Amino acid sequence: MPVITYRQALNDAFAEELERDENVFLMGEEVAEYNGAYKVTEGLWKRFGDKRVIDTPISEAGFIGLGVGAAMMGLRPVMELMFWSFAYVAYDQIINNAGCVRYMSGGLINCPLVIRGPANGGTNVGATHSHTPENFFANTPGLKVVCPATPYDAKGLMKTAIRDNDPVCFMENTLLYGDQGEVPEGEYLIPIGVADVKREGTDVSLIAHGRAVLTSLAAAHRLHEEFNISAEVVDLRSIRPLDEQTILDSVRKTHRAVLVDENKPFCGVSSQIATMIQEHAFDDLDAPIQRVCSLDAPAIYSPPIEKQQLPTADRVIQKVLAVC
Amino acid sequence: MSATQPKTPIVSVARAEKPKTASSPVDYAKAPVNANLTPEQKLGFLADMLRIRRFEQASLKLYQQGKMGGFLHLYIGQESVAVGTCALMGPNDHAITAYRDHGHALVVGMSMNECMAELLGKATGCSKGKGGSMHFFAPDKRYWGGHGIVAGQTPLGLGIAFALKYKGLKGCCLAYLGDGAVNQGVFHESLNLASLWNIPVVYIIENNQYSMGTSLARSSAIKSCLAERAAGYDMDWDLVNGENLYEVRAKTWDAMERAREKCKPCVLEIDTYRYYGHSVADANAKKYRSPEEIEFYKQNHDPITLWENRLKEEGVATDEIIAKIDKAAKEETAASVQFAEDSPFPEVQDIFDDIYYEVDMGTEAGKTGRHFFND
Ligand SMILES: Cc1ncc(C[n+]2csc(CCOP(=O)(O)OP(=O)(O)O)c2C)c(N)n1
Ligand SMILES: [Mg+2]
């Protein structure tokens, strides 16, 4: 199977969907002539032209709102936010318009929109550029939130997101863009709302999404090598809809859960998962649920320290050892 | 000026320049879009203005009887704007507005029944009781709401017009906003994008001189004109005397033609006035403007009276004909009240419909994963 980068996997997804459906267009700051701030859309403007790949001025509220309106009319806009951190400038458009228009119209309207871009810390760009807002958007019924960890998932989920008839917030990661992985040639789709067990195990479930999946896999490897502990790694892949069944199945098998989450701990994604596990699998637990999140402060700039602010394999291992 | 002092009526620029009757120095009745109107069409405009007024008067009563929740923003006094503009829409033209949305809804062809039922929160309402007064929608009539966040609809109107151009359709989007909404950033982003990309959107500022309790003089740095802000984006703009239906139609039509034929966006500022409070729950309705001011507008600038007078002058209408049209509007209204009162509320279970298309439709995509999180 060909090995390509996460960035290339996304690029391939765009190219295939642009080819497949006239109504798909890409829009955002620097996506066309500049080839994308992170080169995710490289070559697409050259290939598909001005109509399909469109550079915008720096007007997130304006162009995201435009995307919502165009989606209401049946187009399939794929809107890039250079960083998801900039979504706050367009928050009203995403929450009130994309998120609520179907409901407030009693189901007369739908909004087949993808809003995408990187949503991660760890690149030493300070607090304003390092937000992980998946919990904010997943908190809005009407929006979907997808956070792929691997090139394979990125491509399959992006293609599905573009074809989905509801608004999808697609959260990528600048630290993953260069990661390599096997991606089959030709068409495949990954449904939104289906988790993936990235490593089987029997002693503890590490439940994660996005880059935290890779942190968990690294921790699982060391737990096996150094402590003879068998950790299962569940990759949520999407936050809303959420694959509750796979989470509960894993916890019922291992009886222990450590939630790994680059979100902030307070009201973050892992808070919701912890609640869900105690509601539905309390009797299966042999130990309290543990969480490893970003340390609860704005993202620090200092490069070696920011590494420690995000979940690390060491912190995951400590939490696992506390319950195993 | 203190709140208790009587205020002199504010007559804004567009009105001050013009005589206080429906006739203007320029005879807009002769404009191409008006010249060939039949008497039936002219009476139809009167009928629509009266329908809006009677519908809203009835809704006010229901509100006061406690049969409605939330806000009720009445359009009364502004009827000529919706009738003068929405009635120009062709098969590829679309409209979107803010929360003062009943008038536009009735003109684009939504039924009084579905609108009144929505006000009462009934399952038979246009949004199944999920939107309320501020959120009427009829995409089949190319009416995209009904939006509660001030200026939040302005980029949506842009996107609708963008989609028309993208699909190669010759149409435009009428995107309405208030005089207060022009101060929101997203409106200015939308203006820049509209002009930069030649998007066929016609922004219509319904300048009723107040945003809630704040007069234009207290909200806009430039006081003489709001539409002129478009000049900052190299975009066409015009001022319209809203009480003259012929002028509203003529100028809006010109703007729509420029949008449809040349993809030229435009900002129109239509001068108008609301008689009631910002919403029915406007506790300060009497503080920020005087009863004399409101009375002055009712006496001298009422769009319905002016149109009636005009039609009488033209020999198109008589008192009898007008009374007949009004009676029909009242009967339609009364029937809608009955319909709304007789209709059932939605069920609690209905709360969970109309959130995700894929779930509603029972598609494969709607079946994977958990979408709702009630324990
Ligand atoms: C973003 C936002 N801020 C404030 C409000 C509260 N609000 C609703 S309407 C309104 C006044 C708007 O006035 P204008 O734009 O002139 O429209 P009009 O009510 O006169 O039709 C205000 C402050 C809101 N709905 N949305
Ligand atoms: Mg106003």
Question: Could you explain how this protein is built, in words?
Answer:
- The complex is a heterodimer of chains A (324) and B (375).
- Chain A is an alpha/beta fold and 324 residues long.
- In chain A, 38% of the residues lie in helices and 18% in strands.
- Chain A folds into 2 domains: 180 residues, Thiamin diphosphate (ThDP)-binding fold, Pyr/PP domains (Rossmann fold, 3-Layer(aba) Sandwich), CATH 3.40.50; 128 residues, 3-Layer(aba) Sandwich (Rossmann fold).
- In chain A, the strands form 3 sheets. Chain A has a 7-stranded mixed beta sheet with strand order 3-2-4-5-7-6-12, sandwiched between helices.
- In chain A, β2, α2 and β3 form a beta-alpha-beta unit.
- In chain A, α1 runs parallel beside α7.
- Chain B has 2 domains: 310 residues, Thiamin diphosphate (ThDP)-binding fold, Pyr/PP domains (Rossmann fold), CATH 3.40.50; 28 residues, no CATH class.
- A 5-stranded parallel beta sheet of chain B has the order 1-2-3-7-6. A two-stranded antiparallel ribbon of chain B has the order 4-5.
- Chain B is 42% helix and 9% strand.
- In chain B, a hairpin with a 2-residue loop joins β4 and β5.
- The longest helix of chain B has 26 residues.
- The chains are: A alpha/beta (324), B alpha/beta (375).
- Chains A and B meet through α3, α4, α5 and α10 of A and α7, α8 and α14 of B.
- Bound molecules: thiamine diphosphate and magnesium ion.
- Magnesium ion binds next to β4 of chain B.
